[in-house]
Every structure is written in C-alpha cells, then in structure tokens.
Amino acid sequence: xxxxxxxxxxxxxxxxxxxxxxxxxxxxxxxxxxxxxxxxxxxxxxxxxxxxxxxxxxxxxxxxxxxxxxxxxxxxxxxxxxxxxxxxxxxxxxxxxxxxxxxxxxxxxxxxxxxxxxxxxxxxxxxxxxxxxxxxxxxxxxxxxxxxxxxxxxxxxxxxxxxxxxxxxxxxxxxxxxxxxxxxxxxxxxxxxxxxxxxxxxxxxxxxxxxxxxxxxxxxxxxxxxxxxxxxxxxxxxxxxxxxxxxxxxxxxxxxxxxxxxxxxxxxxxxxxxxxxxxxxxxxxxxxxxxxxxxxxxxxxxxxxxxxxxxxxxxxxxxxxxxxxxxxxxxxxxxxxxxxxxxxxxxxxxxxxxxxxxxxxxxxxxxxxxxxxxxxxxxxxxxxxxxxxx
Length: 390
Description:
This protein has 390 residues and is mainly alpha-helical. The chain has helices at residues 14-38, 46-59, 74-79, 82-85, 90-112, 117-128, 131-138, 143-158, 162-175, 183-189, 200-238, 250-255, 263-283, 290-303, 310-317, 320-323, 331-358, 363-387. It is globular, with a radius of gyration of 21 Å. 36% of the residues are buried.
C-alpha cells in the first residue's frame, strides 16, 4: 500500500464503525421493503425468497428441496427458519451481522501479518463500506455466510489450529463448492522440508476436512435422500445455464441449448481454469502468500466459469482486503482499474436491461459486453499479480 492511501481516518473507533456499518445495512433492509412494494424490479434477491420458502417447508416438517430451485445446503434452510416464525427480514439482518464478523476477521488476520494500524483499519473498513457488499448482503444473498466460513478457515490456519481449520474448511465446502479449490494451496502451505511426503499437520488437515464433509453429507443424505445429494452437490457440477449472465460462454451455451452436450467442448472450457489453479497453487503455496493465492484462484475460477452472477464477485472481493497491504502501486492505478471494472459491468448491465425489460434482441451486444468484462478482469488480475510483493 502506498502512502497516498494512508489517509487520516475519522476519530471513530473500530467498534463504532462496525456499529455504523450495521445500521446502514438495517436502513437498506427497511428500504428494500418499500422498493419491493412500489417498483417493478425488486431490490430483494429472488434467492432470498427461495430460502424463505425452503425454511417454511422445514417448519412444516417437509423437505426444503420440495421448493423448486432450492439447491443449497439443507442446513441453510434450517438456519433461516426464523424468517417464517419471527420476521421475514431475519436472514438479511443475520447476513448483515456476519458482514461485521468478516471485518473483524480481516482485522485479526492482518494483525498477525504485522500490518500497521492504519493499513489494517483501512482494509477492514473497505469491506464494511464496500457498496457491492452492502447491496448484495441487504438483498438477502447468503454468500456472506460462505465468505465468513472461508475467512474463518484462513484465520484458524494462521493460528495453527489445523484440526479446527480442516473441520471449518469441510463446512465451507458443504455450503458452497468453490472453497474446494483452496484445498491444494492450504495443503501446500503446511509443507516443511519434503514436498512429496505429507507431514503431521497435512494429515490433520486432510483427515479433519474429510471427516467434516462426510458427517455433513451423510446427515443430509439420511434426512433427505438422493434429492439432497443431487440438488446441493451434483446439480452444480452438471449445471448448464443458458440464461444471460456475465460469462463469456453464455452465448455459446444459449445457441447450443437444443444440441447434445459436447464432451470436447466441456473439456476445453474446463482445462484453462484447472491449469491456472494448479499453477497458482504452486507459485503461492507459502503460508504468508496464502491469502493472495486464495484471491487469485477465486478470481480465475469466477472469470472462467460457465455461469457468473454478481454475487460471484463477492467471493474474490472479500479476499482483496487481505492482499492490499502487499500490493505496491499508486492510487491513480487503483482508481483506473476500479473505474474500468465498474464501467465494463455497467455496459453489460445496460445491454442486459435492454434485452430483459425492453424486449430488444441484444444478444450479440451482450456477448461482446461479456468479452469486454472478461478482458478487463484479466487485465486487473495481471496488474494485481504484477503489483504483489511478499
């Protein structure tokens, strides 16, 4: 971080900032109720309604998977049963509180990395007041919970709580599959002298993570059978969404929706991502570089995924504050990269709005907008890798 961004922060304590950020989220939650009532395009995420319906099924003693399109952990529906028995906004308030806990974890992790007070303070506040974080959480998206589990896993590993780290990592994979890609860099970060023979801590990590996944999967299968296994796990592996989204692959998948699945096509889509994930796992396998490895891998996985929605950006933006102290750059470059990212998203959203709400055929423009966003993301990632200094 350069001196240019080490500005004087307000006299508010960190606890006061956490409280203020939470209040801002509560205000947005109240606004969401008014917005949903008077505007055609709702503020509340459609997934939040799915969560609530699934929670209602649980309260009624039925399976959450009876709710069409519920493809998450059954324990999420259990967690959100107060949406039904207390208040429909309970989940949004819960996710907002989890946002504050993530900020605390960011500060704790950066403290152990020996960051100065100003830098770690700035990085934590960047998460608390990030507009995308505020909006996604208060819309009722549950990814703040996934981000919390990932950040807590990293926190435990840095504190050498290897068994607890493995158990938490298994839990995070159960809730969202994307943390699975962190397994290799986490495993390699525990390496000592011999890279080929697992040491004691590596065995602890693998066995505790496996135990966690087995217990959660077995419990889910016992309660809800194969439906649980397919909807919450297998579906995400075979998913082929032809609706318009940020992915560069969406138009190709849309045009070939009526054709039989091409195995070679799927392999060609899959290989670049796997190669880059393996490469980054090796190059950033040191424990001190682990937050950066996780950030880079998440950004790669999102960029090359066949389906990308706004909440996917949430995954790597949550890890960016942990990397900022090691990025040596100017404020001007940061502003330029940020503006290019926002502008490219704005162009895509405009063309998507024209297609979905105006009924104008803009598929070609939407595809070109997706290519632009992909190019911008690649440029940003290359710049961040170039700026990284351990």
